[in-house]
Amino acid sequence: MERNKRLPLLPALYLTALSALSSTVVQADLLGLTANLPTVTFGATGVIEYNANTSTVTVSGDPSKLFSLFPVIDAEVIDTSTEDIKDIAITFQIDATGNIVPNDAATPDLIVTGAIDVDGDGIVDYSGTLLSAEVSQFGFQNGTSGGDDVFDLRLNRIGGDLAYLYSGRDLAISILSAANNEYATPFDGGFNTTWQSQASGKIGSTPSSSSVPPASDNCHLKMVAKCSVDGGPYRNKCRIKVTKSANHWERYEYAYNGQTFQMSKYGTHGYSIPAWATSFPTTQVTFKYNVTNDGDNPVSNILIEDSFDTPISGYQTSLAPGTSLSTTRTVELSEGIENDVTVLGNHGSEMCASTDIVVVRDKRRERKPHDNDDFKNKGNTN
């Protein structure tokens, strides 16, 4: 038997090409960053995609909420008055292994556009470019067996109206790409071909530099919010049949640990439900909120606030390190909503918080929720 027989030319070329292709299939490697407060969240209507022809990664989404403890800010991001837009746009180039390719482009890699009323007085304080930054690191992890993909980024050279909130720190962005069948070519763990996936996430700060002590170094909480339609599986984005609703948005205040927070709440707010609203069908949606103490110290006085106008009850108010709690809220919905969920807690004198957003959308088409509208203008009253 010939032990050193040469391979035919065509198979040899095939194996060489296969070997070269395999060498560009990169291993999962997250940066391990956490988007700490202050945070800007964006919901599951976002998209992350990679163009193999230009080696470019882009992320797009709608910024939903800015949350900060120092200073206290709990504000929705709304459309700018001049251009009527709010947007998160991230664009950067990578090589075949997922490493950042530096560029000298005049346009920042990250641009967050929108308007914010930070003090809740009804007057927009910032409008236009809220944040800008340059991507310096990119991490990724491909979900196994059709599971969720995860990405994280580190950014520096921060600009925009909200840059003062991140003084002395870099930005961290965490992105979750939930497995679904809406995208035919999702992330496969490599950068050989073009792919596109759903994206939701959070923009926040990295741990501070030694010259700027972190606001809550000894107090840590993590909120994860999901939704379920008619008893189905929990997801970070749900779809329902949209009809008409008497619910509307109003501004609320709530106090915690001597601080006052403001946020918009969705519901009837004590108004009686008009007759026209009772004739429209609703869909049962259950929201599940999971809170984890991912720090080294116990956290007490836990408070969960979401976007609905009635309080959440029935959950424990303290967590030992490494433990979690879950609570649910079931509502009847007949229109879409971006449900912003916040958990607060404290360890001694230090406060901590975490936010997440879960999106309910129309089965037929995307619809924006009305914002702080007038109850009397809802629906057809004829």
Question: Which terms would index this structure?
Answer:
signal, four-stranded mixed β-sheet, disordered N terminus, globular, DUF11 domain-containing protein, Immunoglobulin-like, eight-stranded antiparallel barrel, 382 residues
Structurally, the number of domains stands at: 2
Physical arrangement of strands within the biggest beta sheet: 1-2-5-6-7-8-9-10
Output the structural class: mainly beta
Mean pLDDT: 83
Radius of gyration: 23 Å
Quick one: how many beta strands?
A: 19
The helix fraction, in percent, is: under 10%
Major sheet details: 8 strands, antiparallel, barrel
Distance between the termini: 93 Å
What's the SSE pattern?
A: HEEEEEEEEEEEEEEEEEEE
Q: What does the overall shape look like?
A: globular
Query: Proportion of β residues?
Result: 35-45%
Low-confidence stretches: 1-28, 209-215, 366-382
In DSSP terms (H or I, runs of 4 or more residues), the helix count works out at 1
Give an overview of the whole structure:
- The chain is mainly β and 382 residues long.
- The protein folds into two domains: 31-207; 216-382, Sandwich (Immunoglobulin-like), CATH 2.60.40.10.
- Helix content is 4%, strand content 45%.
- It is built from one helix and 19 strands.
- An eight-stranded antiparallel beta barrel has the order 1-2-5-6-7-8-9-10.
- The termini are far apart.
- Mean pLDDT is 83; it is low at 1-28, 209-215 and 366-382.
In short:
Residues 1-28 form the signal peptide. With 382 residues, the protein is mostly beta strands.
